[in-house]
Amino acid sequence: MGKKEEAKARLLGKSFQVSSPRLSAQEPPRYPKESLGCVSSQDEELTSQHEPLKKETGLPQIAPDLTVVQFIKVFPSVLLRMLRHPIFLLVVLSQVCTSSMVAGMATFLPKLLERQFSVTASFANLLLGTLAIPLAIVGIVLGGVLVKRLHLSPMQCSVLCLLGSLLCMVLSLPLFFIGCPTHQIAGITQDLGAQTEPSLFPGCSEPCSCQSDDFNPVCDTSTHVEYITPCHAGCTGHVVQEALGKSQVFYTNCSCVAGGGTVPAGSCESACSHLVMPFILLTSLGAMVASITHTPSFMLILRGVKKEDKILAVGMQFMLLRVLAWMPSPVIHGSAIDTTCVHWALSCGRRAVCRYYDHDLLRTRFIGLQFFFKSGSLVCFALVMAILRQQNKEASVKTTVESTDLQQL
């Protein structure tokens, strides 16, 4: 048995020695020179695509490996091409209108609620932070979900933006009629007639020699007439009453009050403070509907411009939004609100702070300015939809003509 095993081992060794030179003699596969030449030509084509050359249209393109000098030379032409793009320009203008509306609302809506419905500043900001802002976030997410789930085309995105802007305008219409009337303020909104500044206040307070720059309002609860100071109400004394751990100041012997009665310190409370909730709910729903257009309008820009211009388009979009919307909009809203003031506090002979507003004018001009920006956004989206519809018609006609020519051939 041992001899047979040794013989088998010798045979296996010889076979391995014979086969191993064959394996070691195999050379690695060699590629022909023609294939290597193809690779190098492809590389040259790829590098040539990145050079700042001109396409068939003669318009320069921005390449990722441009030098600063080359970029400065090419940038004006590319910028002009972007500004002449109708879809890009109209969508950005619609976003400018929407952002102007949002900037004005975020800045002055708490002030409007505070003045219009006699709520505190903290409560007005609380309503804005708990209702308007969260619903706006929901609108942005909902717009993105609709675009992704329904696979909306540019034409469908423009229709969605148009419907969102239209519904936002409809929701803002009732806001013109939800509000409180202007308080009756002695000498300012009541019994003014043709009187001038020296005789601004009722004659009952003339012996008191009241200072017109002072501001410590009191309210006649029987007539709901407000006086700027106790002096203007003709009051000569005051008492402090404690109730439920709070101190309340009352001014007595007021000659301008019927029967020379007593008036509490503070402004008169509004009789329609309960309308603040319907007002903020409609405003928040309008903000949510307007926010639905955020993602579709962004997709219109990305799908409307050329591939090499997408980054520049996004950068220009945000630049124009900040320059044309977020910077001037608060100034425009603030100027419109200042025109509704009926009594200013003076400092060194100049206007300082508005003490009383005309509530009807304040509401009408603020909501009217918001309505103006919403209308601008609606018009821009309508023009975008019309342009896309015309482009689709031209594309369908071109396809029909080409198919007819192929059939004839």
UniProtKB/TrEMBL annotation:
Biological process terms in GO annotation: monoatomic ion transport; sodium-independent organic anion transport
Membrane topology note: Multi-pass membrane protein
PANTHER family given in the database record: ORGANIC ANION TRANSPORTER (PTHR11388), SOLUTE CARRIER ORGANIC ANION TRANSPORTER FAMILY MEMBER 2B1 (PTHR11388:SF87)
NCBIfam families: oat
Kazal-like domain boundaries: 198-258
Name of this protein: Solute carrier organic anion transporter family member
Keywords, sorted A to Z: Cell membrane, Disulfide bond, Ion transport, Membrane, Transmembrane, Transmembrane helix, Transport
Keyword Ion transport listed: yes
Sequence segments annotated as region (Disordered): 17-42
Record's GO cellular component terms: apical plasma membrane; basolateral plasma membrane
Membrane-spanning segments: 87-109, 121-147, 159-179, 275-302, 366-388
Gene Ontology MF term list: bile acid transmembrane transporter activity; sodium-independent organic anion transmembrane transporter activity
Lineage: superkingdom: Eukaryota
